[in-house]
Amino acid sequence: MDPIIQLENIRFKYQEDDSSYALNDVSIEINRGEWVAIIGHNGSGKSTLAKTINGLLLPESGSVKVGDYILSEENIWSLRKMVGMVFQNPDNQFVGATVEDDVAFGMENQGVPREDMLVRVKDALQKVRMSDFAAREPARLSGGQKQRVAIAGVVALRPDIIILDEATSMLDPEGREEVIKTIKEIKDESNLTVISITHDIDEAANANRVFVMCQGELIKEGSPEEIFSAGPELIELGLDLPFPEKLKIALKEQGIAVPQEYLTEEGMVEWLWTSVLKK
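Given the sequence above, the corresponding C-alpha cells read:
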C-alpha cells in the first residue's frame, strides 16, 4: 500500500453556531493510483470532504496529509499543486478565448515557462482527444467536449490527484461515458489517483473503492461489489442502485432466479446471454 491521502478525525462546520458538523470525525486513507468514489445524498458531506482534501477548507480539528504535506497555512499552495479539481459546470471554469488559451491559463498562474507550456497544452489536448479543437471558442463546444477541455486544463498542471466534483452530472449519457473513458485512460497512463464525488451510481461502480457519506459521517466503505450488493440499505439512505442491480430486483419480482453476487454491466450481459436468453 502507498497512501497518498490520509485524513484523520476530520471535523468541520461552516458556521460556529451550526448545530451539526458538515464533517464529523471522518478518517479515510486513499492509495496512490486508486480510483475512489464518494457517494451520498445532498448535504451528506461529499463536496465538503473534497474541498478539505485540496485545502479549500481548513478543518476545525484533525489532520489532512496529501503526499508528504500535512495541510497548514504554510504549505497549502504546495499541497494544492498536487490536487486538480474538475467541477460540475465546465462553463464556470473557462477563462480563455480559445481552447488552447484555456488549457494554458492554470500554467500561466503557476509561472510555467512558455516552451514547457506549449508542450503541455499539446500533450493534454491529445490525451483528451481535443487537439482538433485547439483554436475553437469553448462556448461552441458540446457539454462533453467542454468537460474534456476542463480535464485537459487540470491534466496540463501535472497533478498527482484529480477530484471530479459531480463532473459528469450535467452531461447526457454519451457525454458522461466519454468523460469517464477519458479519465480512465489518463489515470492508467499517468498512475493518477482519482476521487469521484458523484450521484451517478453507474459512475461510482467503476471505482476500486466506494465511500458512503451520510450526515457528515463516513458510514460505509468497500469495493463496488460489497457496497452495491447491499441494495436495500442504499435505498434507505436515499441512494440509487447501479442498473444491473435494479434489473436483478425487477427480474426477481418476475420470479426469475438471479445471481446473489454483484454484477457489472458486462457481467449482467454475460449472465443474461448464457443463463436466460439461451434457454
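Strands lie at 3-12, 23-31, 35-39, 61-66, 69-70, 83-86, 161-165, 193-197, 209-214, 217-222. Try to locate this feature in the C-alpha cell string yourself.
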